[in-house]
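User: My advisor, Dr. K., asked me to get a structural model of this assembly before our group meeting. I'm new to this, so sorry if the format is off. These are the inputs:
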Amino acid sequence: MKRTSIKITSEKLDLQACYRFVEDDACGGITAFIGTVRNDTQGKEVHQLDFSTYKPMAIKEMQKIADTALAKFDIKKIAIHHAEGMLQIRDIPVIITASAKHRKAAFEACEFAIDTLKETVPIWKKEYFSDGEVWVNAHP
Amino acid sequence: MIIKILFFGITADLVHTTHLTLDIDKDVKVASFKAVLESKYPQLKNVNSYAIAVNEAYASDDLILKENDTVAIIPPVSGG
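Assistant: The format is fine. Below is the predicted structure of the whole assembly, which you can bring to the meeting.
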């Protein structure tokens, strides 16, 4: 049985697919984290975000996160899907779902996965404002 | 020896390319490679910080590069 689902796609992320992947007869709960594109950064209006990836390495790092989550928390399955390309306000750049016998492990696994993804997975976003564009986190 | 270099995010904008090949000394450590790279592209010093990945895995400063390695320049990530 496959317990992890890892994906990077330029197509629209599929919440239902992430949910279905982690469904399990032995589980009492499923948690989902859904990242969404926000319309401002520090008071400045954002128009869109462009996500670029080092895809083969990003897939490996996402797989590591999923494997670590399985080892660290009492969860049954975990899915981590990330989008690439240009996204608009309210679009979904990332979905993480986890299923567990008891809810606490599923919550913890989801939080661990998104926190670690933001630190280690080689994916970059560029914010587009009305007066220009900026790579996020790139400058001191 | 020849190595392949990939640039991502802001570093690709700074050097105006996403990839190139570079001829460097044999048995060079990642730390000295970074020094060579920064002397060739001083604009990289403007980046907050960057990590190095060798063959799709994060590499420490004392890893020794080998012929045909793929070395990626990883500026601060911002996925999610």
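One thing worth pointing out at the meeting: Strands of chain A lie at 4-9, 29-35, 40-41, 44-45, 48-53, 75-83, 85-88, 94-100, 123-129, 132-135.

User: Perfect, thanks a lot.
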